[in-house]
Amino acid sequence: MARLNLDGKTIPMMSICMIGGGGFIGSHLCEKLVAETNHKAVVVDVSSEKIDHLLDRSLPWAHRIEFHQLNIKSDSRLETLIKSTDLTINLAAICTPADYNTRPLDTIYSNFVDSIPVIKYCTENKKRLIHFSTCEVYGKTIGSFLPQEFRKDPKYFILKEDESPCIFGPINKQRWSYACAKQMTDRLIYAEYAENGLDFTIVRPYNWIGPRMDFIPGVDGPSDGVPRVLACFSNSLLRGEPLKLVDGGKSQRTFLYIKDAIDAVALMIDNPEKANGYIFNVGNPDNEVSVKELAELMIKAYAKVSGAPASSMSTVNVSSEDFYGKGYDDSDRRIPDMTFITRQLAWKPRTPLDELLDVTLQYQHRTYSRAIERELSKPTN
Ligand code: NAD
């Protein structure tokens, strides 16, 4: 049966060049595209590890997914792939906070310089672009600069795509290298739209989490690597170590289940008339907790999954300088305004935080607990 878009029109089959499509978000988007649409995914990434389960040539969708192993920094095949597909989705990035102040050059090149050719090829070849930005582009909130008595009012923390300013710390706080590079990319895309008619959609994810996010250090990533908070806390739970709360885990964040998020991206893909020319916040304001509360919820969920008592799991405070090194900084709170995405795409998040943590920790336990047990049982020299 033909699939219909929000205007009741048949959705045409599209070929989609997914740059960075082998990562966390890309892997879930690929699953959705092959299983629920008739679109074709042309995946570009340096690694296919997270989508290998979709690439087996015996699978029914084998003719609708292909993988091109290439580094977009230095590969002339990129332009050909963008030219030969209908839509480009750019997900490629260095996007782990531990890198922003320790590898600022790689962060800036990856999030700004490397997207310049992608944007140029889309404009020159009149191809539609869905680009992944970040909620970090908003930087710090107005609320964080106000006297304490004003800080409770959510209006100082709610971030609106076309109204909120982008407020970063000083240059020596290199944490902002990521946000600033992403902002420049957003501005370049917007300028191409304004001057050259580029058809664009910018997505601003707010902490999308779920299975396959990042890596577990020492198992499927470097043992000294520092992934994003979900994988950091999962790693501590799997190893029976205290969960490290940076500066007491006071920062508040909203968390969105990856499957809900992918539904929003699919709506953007299938409804260009409603998505082109817009920037969309994609988050779940109902799932707001402090990082400390997130740690406590993850302890509760992991106790259920692993059978170990929650009392055997704990948290410990660490300073941001000890954890992330010099030049780290943070935003106190970020709440997405959802007016735009609800109006344009009739999308709303569905999954509450406790449910999404249950699913995710079941996955982490199933995928990693044996490998960690083996590692921990090895004799130390
Ligand atoms: P991810 O790290 O899992 O995926 C990024 C992918 O890009 C990786 O597979 C990586 O190998 C690939 N890549 C990076 N540089 C490349 C290059 N030069 N050539 C080819 N491939 C390259 O990250 P993710 O969570 O899937 O995020 C995807 C996008 O969404 C990023 O732009 C990120 O900044 C943005 N984002 C994500 C979140 C979130 O909640 N997950 C939040 C804010 C922004």
From TrEMBL:
It holds the Pfam family Epimerase. Residues 16-283 form the NAD-dependent epimerase/dehydratase domain. Gene3D superfamilies: NAD(P)-binding Rossmann-like Domain. InterPro entries: Epimerase_deHydtase (IPR001509), Lipid_A_modif_metabolic_enz (IPR050177), NAD(P)-bd_dom_sf (IPR036291). PANTHER family: BIFUNCTIONAL POLYMYXIN RESISTANCE PROTEIN ARNA, UDP-GLUCURONATE DECARBOXYLASE-RELATED. This is UDP-apiose/xylose synthase. It comes from Vigna unguiculata (Cowpea).
